[in-house]
Amino acid sequence: MLHAEQVLLGERLLDYIASGATAAMERPYLQSVEEYISDEFAAREEHSLFRPLPLCVGLSGLLPGPNTFSTHDLSGQPILLTRAADGRFRAFLNVCRHRGARVADGCGRQRNFVCPYHAWTFGLDGNLVARPEEYAFESVPRANSSLVALPAVERDGMLWVRPSPGADFDLDRHLAGAQVELGAYALKDFHLYRSTVLRRRMNWKLLLDTFLESYHFCVLHKNSICSIFYDNLTTFDSWGEHFRIVSARRTIEQIKGLDKGDWNLLPHIVAIYVLFPNTVLVWQLDHIELWQIFPGRTPDESAVELSLYTPDPTETERARAHWDKNFDLVVGVVEDEDFPVGEGIQNGFHSGAQPHITFGTNEPALAFFHRAVTDRTA
After folding, report:
1. Model pTM?
2. Are residues 244 and 332 in the same domain?
3. Separation of alpha carbons 211 and 218, rounded Å
C-alpha cells in the first residue's frame, strides 16, 4: 500500500475510533434469500461470473521458477498452470487432445506432461512433443493436438486466468484502478508456504460474506480475535466491482504520537481486498492470505482454497513453527466459529422464515458486493 494511502486510512480509522463511527451507507439493504438457494440463479452465476471473468488463481510464488506447474480444479474447469523454461506464465485446459484424459495432477517441477492413458507428451508451453505410433495420426496436424490454451496474465505478482478459451482479456480494464494499490505490495516477492481446500455446506456468497464486516467480531469471535481488533469499525473503498475494507488493530494507537511522514500503518490493520467475483486477498501484519471461493455442485455447497504467502522463504524449524501457528489460527477461527454459523444460516434459508436478509447501514461492503452479483447476473 502506498504511504500516502496509509496516511489517509490512518486518519480515517483514528477518526472512527474517536467518534465511535464506521463506514456506512444511507439505508439498510435487503438481500434476497433466493439468490443463496436457487439452482437457476447458481447457473446464471456460473455463466455470468465464473466463465467469462478473469479469476485470480494465485500469486506468482505458486510457480516459483522455470519448469513448474500447478493444477486448479475448483472453478469447475480442469485448469493447468505452468511456467515453462522461458519463465512465462501460461494456462491450459488440463485435457489431453487424444482421448481427454488429465495430463497432470498436483503441482511440482518437470519439463513435460505425459498423458497416463497413451503417453502423448506435451511441453509446459502446451505444445505436443510426442505421440506414440505417430503414423496412425499423420492426417491430424500436430498443431491441432496441442493443449487448449486459456487467456492468462501475470501482473504485479498475481496470476489471472479466464476459465473459458477465447481472446485475451484487458486486465487493467477489469481491475478498474485497483492494480495501482495491489502493485504497491510487491506480491511477486512473496513465497507460497501452505495451502488447504475447505468444503462446506453453504453457498459461496455466504462464505464470502464472512469477510465483509467486523460487526460480528466481538460476538462470534469473542474468545479469539475480539481482543485484537476494534469491532464494528471498518473503512470501505471501491474500484469498479472490486473493493477494500480495512479494520484497525488495537495497536493503531501507537502511531498517534508520530509524525505522519513516519506512519507505517500496515502492522496495525488487516486490509481485505475483494477481487470480484470470488477472490479475497488479505494483508495480515507482514504476510498474505489468498482465499479463492467457488460454488459447489449445488447452491448449498462451496469450496475455498486458502493459501498463505510469506515475505521470505521458510528455511528453519522456528520459521515453520511461526507460519504454522498463523495458518492454524486462521483455519481454526473459520472452521470452528464462522463456518458452523454459516451452515446453520444456509439451512435456515430453506425454512421459509424470511424472503430476504438485512444488511445494516454499518455493512456497506455486503450491499456493494451483492448489488454487483445481482447486476452481473440480471
Report:
1. 0.94
2. yes
3. 14
* Closest residue by Cα to residue 186 from 153, 158, 152: 158
What CATH code is carried by the domain that includes residue 77? 2.102.10.10
Same domain assignment for residues 350 and 203: yes
Length, in residues, of the chain = 378
Distance CA 66, CA 110 (A): 9
Which residue stretches of the chain have pLDDT < 70? none
What is the span of the domain harbouring residue 110?
55-168
> How many Cα atoms within 13 Å fall on the side-chain side of residue 86?
7
- Region of residue 176 (left: phi > 0; alpha: psi -120 to 50; beta: else): left
**For position 111, what pLDDT does the model report?**
93
Grid cell in block for residue 165: 478459451
Residues 43, 75, 289, 104, Cα dihedral to 10°: 170
- Tally the domains of the chain: 2
State whether 102 and 232 are in the same domain: no
Whether cis (ω within 30° of 0) applies to the bond prior to 277 is: yes
Q: Where among 168, 200, 224 does a domain terminate?
A: 168
Return the exposure string of 296-323: e unless at least 16 CB atoms fall within 10 Å of the residue's CB, then b.
Answer: beebbbbbbbbbbbbeeebeeeeeeeeb
Q: Is 217 helix (H, G, I), strand (E, B) or coil?
A: helix
3-state secondary structure of 172: helix
Asked if residues 293 and 280 have their Cβ atoms less than 8 Å apart, the reply is yes
Q: Which of 168, 190, 209 is the last residue of a domain?
A: 168
CATH assignment of the domain containing 189: 3.90.380.10
Q: What are the counts of helices (DSSP H) followed by strands (DSSP E) for the chain?
A: 10, 20
- Enumerate residues 6+ apart whose C-beta is below 8 A from 122: 96, 103, 112, 113, 115, 128, 129, 146, 147
Q: Are residues 347 and 220 in the same domain?
A: yes
φ, ψ of residue 78 to 5 degrees: the values are -80, 105
Amino acid 116: pLDDT: 93
Q: Mind listing the pLDDT tens digit for each residue in 288-312?
A: 999 999 999 999 999 999 999 999 9
